[in-house]
Write a structure and sequence with these properties.
Layout lengths: L1 E6 L11 H10 L3 E5 L5 E5 L5 H16 L5 E5 H9 L10 E8 L5 H8 L6 E6 L2 E7 L9 H8 L3 E5 H9 L2
Length: 174
């Protein structure tokens, strides 16, 4: 089965890892046909394993041992990623808006979603659907007070954000 791993804290905050090394590390974990997409911790691979939770734990443990720092790993199947890329909760974007997808460890509780929605405002539109947060930001980044750390802190779980353009390009890969 083909999967996509979204890694948090790769090539930000002083945690620099080349994509060549990242592909090699995934290979050392017994994963096959490994490829990366841009240098922000997006890794496609194949494996016979079917438990996403076990795969996430395996990759996180292997990367921690090899790199010396924690790297939250959020994995989706190709079919899941294609559904994420196709989902558009806000309608067609207009000029000056930027879309993001937040990949979450698990489906957040209704209380967590309610807390998260307190961050929605005229600049930041938020929508939770399954294990993803859809965020549309109006205007420049400086206009927003929302961030990945706000997302993690509010829900109390690991998460990582990707631009919706990146998500769509990854989902469209053969």
């Amino acid at each position: 089965m083909r999967y996509i791993a979204f890694l948090r804290a790769i090539n930000v905050g002083g945690h620099t890892v080349t994509m060549v090394r990242l592909r090699a590390l995934f290979g050392e974990l017994g994963l096959r046909d490994v490829s990366t997409f841009i240098a922000s911790g997006n890794v496609r691979f194949e494996t016979r394993a079917t438990s996403v939770a076990a795969l996430e734990a395996r990759v996180e443990s292997g990367l921690r041992a090899a790199l010396g720092f924690e790297t939250a790993t959020l994995i989706r199947t190709v079919a899941e990623l294609q559904a994420v890329a196709a989902f558009e909760p806000f309608g067609a974007p207009v000029a000056g808006e930027t879309g993001y997808v937040g990949f979450l460890r698990s489906v957040p509780s209704s209380d967590g979603v309610a807390r998260l929605m307190t961050h929605a405002n005229a600049v930041d539109m938020l929508h939770v659907h399954g294990r993803e947060l859809y965020w549309r930001r109006r205007g420049p980044g400086a206009a927003s007070r929302f961030s990945g750390s706000t997302l993690e802190r509010t829900l109390g779980m690991a998460a990582t954000l990707r631009n919706v353009t990146t998500v769509r390009k990854l989902a469209a890969l053969p």
